[in-house]
Design goal:
Blueprint (H helix, E strand, L loop, with lengths): L1 E5 L5 H10 L4 E6 L9 H9 L4 E3 L8 H5 L5 E5 L7 E3 L7 E3 L5 H11 L3 E7 L12 H12 L2 E9 L10 E9 L3 H10 L8 H11 L1 H5 L11 E5 L4 H7 L7 E5 L2 E5 L12 H4 L15 H11 L2 E6 L5 E6 L28 E4 L2 E4 L2 H7 L9 E3 L5 E3 L2 H10 L3 H15 L1
Parallel strand pairs: 1-2, 1-4, 2-3, 4-7
Antiparallel strand pairs: 5-6, 7-9, 8-9, 8-11, 10-12, 11-12, 13-14, 15-16, 17-18
Helix pairs in contact: 1-14, 5-9
Length: 422
């Protein structure tokens, strides 16, 4: 199966798919571009590991329709930025639609139009299902409508990696998008016994709780959460959806033929999650630079992780109290790690702060890679444009992992796709 990886980062989707079946999933094209940086570090790490594919280091917006149409990809994968997806009529009052400038989701739609892949696997932050705050769910409804208008269906699930045995409490929404003329789509329609996908709660629940991709690979408790479900028929007009959408999205759902059903589900995993303590390196291997001995830094972490009530004044002169609850003075080694952010390793509240054998320290880049199920030292080296191999800074390695995904989630999605294809 030929794969195009968009927003490739350091190759999380590719690592996951190759862990599923290196021979079956062949990533032939990859695009990675960091617009705010002169140095293209993530691309250079990707190119170091995967010199065999066509690795494109330009803005996705600069890849032409003709270039996309020459890519005979069976599947597109990528974790794209969370942005404002509102749309409007084009300026000349034509039928065309204009999304907000620079919103990269529309580049995925453009690639899909030109390539017509069988499948897409996409990933985003879970708040996408409730964005924006003033019209909750609108952005996701726009996305579903865009795929429906191209003849695709979408199945989604919010997955906390730790709920399925991994070592990080990282919640992300994953989408399985499939073209409506595929054999898999035909079997789904056959199961529903109606090509219009009419609302039948029993059959929808059968799909979402038993037979769909996420139900198969990431089991949930078989009883829906009481009163937490929604059925909605989308308009085909994206502008009307943008202006008027009033539906609800729960953490699990499927959209077929313009109709979606969404329910709130709870994970059903009998195994035990990997703990933070289990992924740590041997303390004898941890360089001294990761240990915190400076009393001022220790006091700063104590303050950052403690409760706060601070009097503040807004820009318009309004006085208010900013409050923040306390958290444990250091991370519990008997639990999975917390969600990594791109600021990991700096002195801030979100950084993992450890106490091991009576000493305080930060996590190492290798431990950050393990939290995302990457091989050890995956981000240690990069290939420059002149072919030379150089070391990557710790700061950039932590940044990469804060942006990455848990590759084992992708591996299981790959297992399902390979099975239905075969």
């Amino acid at each position: 199966m030929k794969v195009l990886e968009l927003f490739a980062g350091v190759g999380g989707f590719r690592v996951g798919l190759e862990n599923s079946d290196r021979e079956y999933f062949e990533t032939k094209w990859a695009n990675q571009w960091e617009p705010s940086r002169k140095s293209q570090d993530a691309f250079e790490v990707y190119d170091y590991h995967f010199p065999d594919s066509e690795n494109i280091n330009i803005s996705i917006s600069d890849i032409t329709d003709e270039q996309f149409s020459k890519m005979d990809a069976d599947m597109i994968v990528g974790g794209f930025p969370c942005q404002d997806y509102s749309v409007a009529r084009s300026k000349k009052d034509e039928k065309g639609i204009e999304g907000k400038k620079g919103v990269l989701f529309w580049e995925i739609i453009r690639a899909t139009k030109n390539i017509r892949p069988k499948y897409l696997i996409l990933e985003n932050v879970d708040r996408l299902l409730k964005a924006p705050s003033k019209q909750r769910g609108r952005d996701f409804a726009i996305m579903l409508t865009a795929f429906n208008n191209l003849g695709y269906s979408v199945e989604w699930r919010v997955i906390n990696a730790a709920d399925y045995g991994r070592s990080q409490r990282r919640r992300r929404v994953f989408f399985f998008v499939y073209r409506n003329d595929t054999e898999f789509a035909r079997l789904v329609d056959e199961r529903f016994e109606h090509n219009d996908f009419i609302f039948d709660e029993i059959k929808y629940n059968e799909y979402l709780f038993h037979t769909g991709l996420f139900a198969t690979e990431f089991p949930v408790q078989k009883t829906p959460v009481k009163n937490r479900y929604a059925f909605y028929e989308l308009e085909s007009d994206i502008v009307n959806i943008s202006d008027n959408f009033t539906g609800t999205f729960w953490n699990t759902g499927v959209m077929r033929h313009g109709k979606y059903y969404s329910v709130d589900t709870k994970p059903d995993f009998s195994g035990k999650a990997i703990t933070l303590g289990e992924i740590l390196q041997d303390e004898n291997e941890v360089p001294e630079k990761y240990f915190i001995t400076d009393p001022e830094k220790l006091e700063k972490f104590k303050y950052l992780r403690g409760p706060k009530r601070i009097k503040r004044t807004s820009a318009d002169g309004h006085t208010y109290i900013y409050s923040e609850g306390g958290m444990a003075p250091y991370d519990d080694l008997n639990l999975p790690g917390r969600t990594m952010l791109t600021s990991e390793g700096t002195v801030n509240r979100s950084t993992h702060f450890l106490k091991v054998n009576g000493r305080y320290r930060l996590i190492t880049p290798v431990e950050a890679e393990r939290l995302q199920d990457f091989p050890d030292n995956w981000t240690a080296r990069k290939r420059l444009s002149d072919g030379s191999i150089v070391e990557v800074s710790d700061k950039m390695r932590m940044f990469f992992m804060g942006n990455a995904l848990v590759t084992e989630i992708v591996r299981k999605i790959g297992d399902f796709i390979r099975e239905i294809e075969e």
